[in-house]
Amino acid sequence: MDKQMLLGVDYYPEQWDIDLLEQDLDTIVELGCNVIRIAEFSWHLMEKEKGCYDFSFFDNVIEKAKERGLKVIMGTPTATIPAWLAKKHPSILSEFEGGRKRTFGGRHVYCFSSPHMYKYSEKIVRELVEHYKNEKAIVAWQIDNEIGHEGSDVCFCENCRKRFQEFLKEKFEDNIDKLNETYGTTFWSQEYNSFEEIPTPTETITTHNPSLRLDWERFRSRLIVDFIDFQAGIIKEIAPDAVVMHDFPGGGLTKHVDYSKVAVSLDKVAYNNYPVWGGQKEPIPPHEIAFGLDYIRGLKGKNFWVTEAIMGAQGHDVTGFLPRPNQAKMWSYQSMAHGCDGLMYFRYRGATKGAEQFCYGVIDADNVKRRRFYEVQDFFNSISKYENELSSEIKNDVAIVYDYDSLASFRIQRQSLLLDPQAEMQKFYKAFYDVNVGVDIIPWNRDFSKYKIVIFPQLIITKPEMEKRFKEFVKNGGTAVLTYRCAVKDEDNNVPFGKTIPVNYNELTGITVEETESLQEYDAFPVIGHGDYKKINGYGGIFRDMIKDDETAEMLFSYGDLFYMGYAAVTRKRYEKGSVYYIGCGLEEKILKLLMETAMNENDIQMHPSEEGVEVVERGSENQKIKMYINHNQSKITVDGLELEAFECKIVE
Known about the structure:
By secondary structure, the chain is an alpha/beta fold. The protein is 31% helix and 22% strand. The chain has 18 helices and 26 strands. Strands 11, 12, 13, 14, 15, 16, 17, 18, 19, 20 and 21 form an 11-stranded mixed β-sheet that branches. The protein has an 8-stranded parallel barrel with strand order 1-2-5-6-7-8-9-10, surrounded by 4 helices. The chain has a 3-stranded antiparallel β-sheet with strand order 22-23-26. Helix 8 (210-238) crosses helix 14, helix 10 packs across helix 15 and helix 15 packs across helix 18 (589-602). The two termini are 28 Å apart.
């Protein structure tokens, strides 16, 4: 693939009269596009009957696109199986909890455990890639679509039950006694005599064993990872030089799949960026949009594409908020600021039929060019000038670490009704975002030794490898931040016997947690500052640890309520060349921000505060830099002598 920045639209020519094709492509070129993304939902069009493959429709689309200098991102069509396949093999359909089959008619209705799905997917993908393996216009192959989205990451069918039992048999080396011992199945008389007795964790009285449920989460993830690996393998076998990618949906940290493992077999990750959707009254806050972009960049630690950028109002059944003039364009600039180096808008034209009639595109179904068309055109014309700067690697001094197992553990045992691990990550993220300090969001097994500050929020599952790397990081001068509900459980989702929280981190933190409490308020108790924070008081909530230090740790904040005065709420310990902060409760924003500013000052990280709602990002190399000023406010504002209109982005070289 050449280096040209890909700018384009998601185009569904199969949904329109073929006589519109050439006019559409001309308009797409007029828009400033150099790429179209096609075919991801077209299995039936390619295979109307079993084994009868016909790619002539897309042959024509690609030929006409090439005549206009347009490149193509080609989708494998497995996200939407054809009706004849569901009829021929009804077991291919996934099941809701309780045994009710998902009905053919939506998307992603297939089961990842289905041997029929693998058989027919392999055939269509092989035929498709063989047909187009020498097509130079295809610059990337997209596998499926938004894998695991909208509840498709979970199925409770008979295939899944059997595959889960096989998964456990493999994990425990066909030793049921080993599973019983690990899970502690003597509790509630749950011992198994064979793997065939093990259930899927569907609805029961009270709840299932937490260790069983964590393995079920891991199993769900592996099914999806395997399916992506399977398709990537086919594509690479037939077209070794192909760029293989996938378009990830939002909310990745809440899925029953570890997207960082999905990304391993991909050459490029892409993101479908929807800051507002459906019935949302208003878009999510700017720092949460940025967090989602940085999370996607962290899947491979490389720049990414946005394959679905919003332009019009969106919604399937409930139509959503209409981005204000220039607001959606501003979100596109924000994507580029956070590592996007290729962007496509969803969709070229709004649909007249089907479930997405109210997902408005660049132009509406009346085919008239209006404001949104000219905003996209302006964005493409502007951003293409900065290809070199925006293709550069982003290097940050701060990282937030997440762990799929820990996230799953909180889905299994939430512990506090207010505890949302992703929201807690975003609170830390905002402390850096507000002073325009970049943050990487990375999986726990990624190397974090290069950073100055690393946040480890709610990593409830402790792992020996992590403990070792954490210690080395701090010894060598890093600043680490641990939070409440870190290092509470072992890798089997059990509480270790004879060890005190934070398990295996007591020496590093200089503390022990004597008791814990779940709160159902965000400001449930006062916290009182000490030392450098004397006379700074505030509130905490959600959850808290009653912390005792061993006198090697410094108390920064303590609890100020009856019964728990004297217990530390926040501590810091200097350990060899580095330091470890322990934050024992959900802190209000102002105090968390003060703590993170202290950590940044200790590490000589330059902060660049800006006006509320204004994001300032530098991109490029040492020799060629740009500064992007992004105004998220709906009013004019002045920053560094620059006047920014509502939702405007200005780029300064």
